[in-house]
Write a structure and sequence with these properties.
about 25% helix, about 180 residues, rod-shaped, alpha+beta, Glycoprotein, Type 4 Pilin, 3 helices
Length: about 180
């Protein structure tokens, strides 16, 4: 004897309200993990950028020292030895939020960071050296920042006393690295 066949019974479904949408807990955890990984990758560069921004902002103060140094070179093909000879106040009196002194030394502008500067550059020096064409003092001075090289056919005067680590310097203050050969 054969039993009559019954229609198949549907499998029970989870009790979800019709039209409900959103993310499951697992999906949210995956998204949070991805965001955390991206943040960890980005964070190491953030303090360096803050320091470079402080250097750039602080260096605006050097504009008051650049003019008399350049004027001295244009007038007499000679660079001032110190702040007094350049007609500037004492180095410790030229300050701003990030700079604790601006000193002229044989034409070079020696900037010491302090005050509210990041701890990694506090007490460190950045040099701005005048790049000049010795045979033509009427050619404007080009300022050579930190470890950078002077423009072609110009000579940088004064000592480079830059003590800020290269990775913290703005790009225009870094030494050029040789380019890799193409091909």
């Amino acid at each position: 004897m054969r039993l009559p066949s019954l229609p198949p019974t549907p499998l029970p479904r989870p009790d979800r309200r019709r039209g409900a949408s959103g993310f499951s807990l697992l999906e949210l955890m995956v998204v949070l993990a991805i965001v955390a990984i991206l943040a960890l990758i980005a964070l190491p560069g953030v303090p360096d950028k803050v320091i470079r921004d402080q250097i750039v902002e602080g260096m605006k103060l050097t504009d008051i020292a650049k003019a008399p140094v350049a004027a001295s070179w244009a007038a007499a093909a000679r660079l001032p030895i110190n702040n007094g000879e350049a007609g500037l106040p004492a180095a410790e009196q030229i300050v701003n939020n990030y700079i604790s002194s601006v000193a002229i030394e044989s034409g070079a502008i020696q900037v010491t960071f302090g005050n509210r500067a990041h701890a990694n550059i506090r007490g460190k020096v950045l040099s701005l050296r005048p790049g000049v064409v010795e045979a033509a003092p009427m050619v404007p001075v080009a300022w050579v920042c930190g470890n950078a090289e002077p423009p072609t056919r110009m000579t940088a005067k004064g000592l480079n006393k830059t003590s800020i680590p290269a990775q913290l310097l703005p790009l225009n203050c870094r030494a050029l690295t040789p380019a890799a050969p193409l091909g």
